[in-house]
Amino acid sequence: MADKVPEGSNARFATRIDPEKEGLSHEQMHFIRQVELQQWKKKTQKIRGRNVATGLAIGAIVMGIYGYTFYSVAQERFIDELDEEAKRARMLGPKTGAN
Q1: For residue range 18-60, what is the model confidence (pLDDT) as tens digits?
Q2: Residue 95, helix vs strand vs coil
Q3: Nearest-CA neighbor of 63 among 73, 71, 53?
Q4: CA geometry: angle at 59 spanning 78 and 47, to 5°?
Q5: Distance between CA 42 and CA 54 in Å, rounded?
């Protein structure tokens, strides 16, 4: 598509070139580098935004797993405390032939 000539014109439009073979001047090479740098900066801003969003999503997942783990451990302690209380109640309760 870059090598196509627009309709109604004989001028070449957006033709890809090889800077090494074309023999471009120093000013032309400098301009090409400036344009490439601007395009690179524009792309990196988009990529940086995506990276931030991805990092926040991964961080949220990690914090969710971390929080769930603490919640589960807290429940286990509560269950262990109930078991300890039941064990003490059985030890201190009246002794019958069934115990």
Answers
A1: 777 777 888 988 998 899 999 999 899 889 999 999 999 999 9
A2: coil
A3: 71
A4: 170
A5: 19
Q: Distance (Å, rounded) from C-alpha 20 to C-alpha 38?
A: 21
Question: Which residue matches tokens 């990196």?
Answer: 44
The CA–CA distances, whole Å, from 68 to 72, 73, 92 equal 6, 9, 36
DSSP class of 12: -
Q: Does this model's pTM top 0.70?
A: no
**Which pair of structure tokens corresponds to residue 77?**
């302690």
User: Which pair of tokens denotes residue 35?
Assistant: 């344009």
User: For 33, what's the count of Cα atoms within 13 Å in the CB-facing half-sphere?
Assistant: 7
CA dist., res. 49 & res. 2, Å (int): 29
List Cβ neighbours of 13 (8 Å cut-off, separation of 6 or more). Answer: 4, 5, 6
